[in-house]
Fold:
Amino acid sequence: MAPTVLVSGVHSGPNPSPGLGVARSLRLAWPGARLVAVDYSAAATGLSATVFDRVLVRPDWAAADLAATCAGLVDAVLSEDAVFVPGLDLEAALLAERHPGQRALLLPGVAAFDAVRKPGVEAARLLGLRVPAYLLAAGIEDATEFAVAHGWRIWVKGPRYEATAPADLTALSGALHRARVTWGAGEVLLQQHVDGVEESIVFAALDGVLLGAAAMRKTLVTPEGKTWAGAVEPVEHAGLVEFVRHTGWTGGGEVEMVRDDDGDRHLLEVNPRFPAWVHGATLAGINLPARLVSAATGSSTTRPESLLANGFVRVVEEIPAAPRLLGARAAGAPAWPTGGKHPSAMPVLARRLAAGPVPTEPLDLDERTAADVAATLPVDPGDSPARVLLRPVLDRRIAALTGVARAVAGASGVPTGFAYSVKTNPDPRVLDAVLRADAGAEVISQAEARRCAAAGFPADRVVLNGPAKWWRFDGVPAKYGAVFCDSLADLTRTVDLIRDGSVHTDVLGVRLAPPGVPSRFGVDVSDPTGQARLVDALRAAPVGRIGLHFHCAASRIGQARWLREFTIAITAAADLCARAGVRVQCLDLGGGWSPATRAEDLTDALVRAVRVATDRLGTVDQVLFEPGKYLVEPAMAVFSTVLDVRDGPAGRAAVVDASVAELPDWTTHPHPVLWRPPGANWRRLGPGDEAVLGRLCMEHDRPREGLALPPGLRAGDHLLFLDAGGYDASMSYQFGV
Ligand SMILES: *Cc1c(COP(=O)(O)O)cnc(C)c1O
Structure:
């Protein structure tokens, strides 16, 4: 006898639920089956599809009593002597929990849900797949660190649906906030992006026995990355048999993966239901919904599986709207149902099921931070807001860089030193500390060069860089340790200045443009039109040594990509120099390292780069590197006073006497915030959904969002913004009086 099947999740849109595909597959196997559509919104488009004999619109999740909704659904299934195939992840999870062992519900058990919870480490182990690097981020601070470490090629993932790829701090902050409010999630999953081809496996199983599987390679995807067409083939997967057995899986499922360029497969997620493209597998002769229902009910299909095509494509089709449902959609302005993507109101259910973010209490400082801060403060409250130097931090960072230089020299055999990027923070106290560490200074203007001279730097320890190095050059003969030119015109002009005796430099070189990252800086040595001019100028320059400079912020593109870009650039430059008989002796590796980079990792990156360079160029006799924010960002803080604490719909906000004028680099890194009521100890504010607003009458004067303000916060308390010693210092501005 043909079975009766209730199928849920029937919305069909750009990001469809699987119900319609499941129903079509069942109809193909049993023309006489009785198919009932289940959804939680009358706006779900598939409710109008003629493949269904009946529709059942259940109360929406916001209003529903969850226990009653689940029990009502089970009653509906049992009273029809039917089975149920779910199409909505959270609905399936809820039913698994509330009605364990109910055999009419063709869905995995609670243990199986646990095994596939994102990022799916346990599932990946069973399936023999890798898991991309991930972080369960508590807030924007650890999330930013993860993003920087992975060159901003990351995903922010909802626990069930939704993934966004934020490319900067503002987008990341928005994505975290959305994930927290949409899914009621405390911690938010961040995952490294893996380049490669996306693949999926759809499968069906009953009580841990695999009933079949098919693999799909996406051949067309929507701008949101959703499947629009795919190639399907049968798949034998030993790992899948083991996974299904181990989890005791019942129901449909999907394994989403990406295959990288080396052929390694990485797990993206396992879904506890059939995917929306499941009917594509049916068309390829593998009807998994029918196999599942047949195995569960014992009714054999009336039509055999048959291969119609090895691939599928979606089309958009107008069908008559069911009259009863038309009214529900006609009310008000035409709009995509409930919040765009989720007519079945999954986010509402998620929020109801999640415990929700627990407000974080301010945290005690670790001993070292407490000592660092104590050494700097108190600040006279009359001076608030004030930027303060954390002297012990500066000293430690200088020592760390000295250690890096020594380690690079030791590992590469090439004398190595660093030249601090003055523009990052030209504070005389910083320059003095650099000078006393026997390090150099890297400047981008004559004014900065004069500042270094005034601070006591000998001329041969100053590196002159940048596109405007001769701006306001007074012609008085000047000396530098090294000069790197930013363009061919800059090089020609500099060679002329050296020839006529106005400039002396030990090293002359060019900055290499990164080949694969858009940049306004540097010379593209692979461009044939400039090559002759470049080598002629270098050969003609009356200098002792020739150098090459490469700078592309690793804090933006990640260390791995930095090394790839460097390798391509230095290889092209080395080829050209070898052909022209120009010998390169000095290698200068830019700044742009995140302050969070560990000294060992910085050493490692530099050693690798030097090895690549000496392999391509032959030996060099000097390596320079140019840290800026790596040295100074953590070494200063901005002290401020709370003026006002206000309530808003999204929690509280504190208005302080500091602003984005003192913290202009708020867009690139979140400043950790310490709090101290008068007379008390400093404590650190944890992640949350509240904000600190600045004193300026500007909408964007919101120096810090995404934190939890302490319950007792009041006007007159002090906040200390850490990590304000880099561009926050050099770019700070006067706004008003
Ligand atoms: C700005 C700059 C640096 C320092 O960059 P950070 O991001 O502060 O580390 C180093 N070298 C050159 C040539 C620069 O222009």
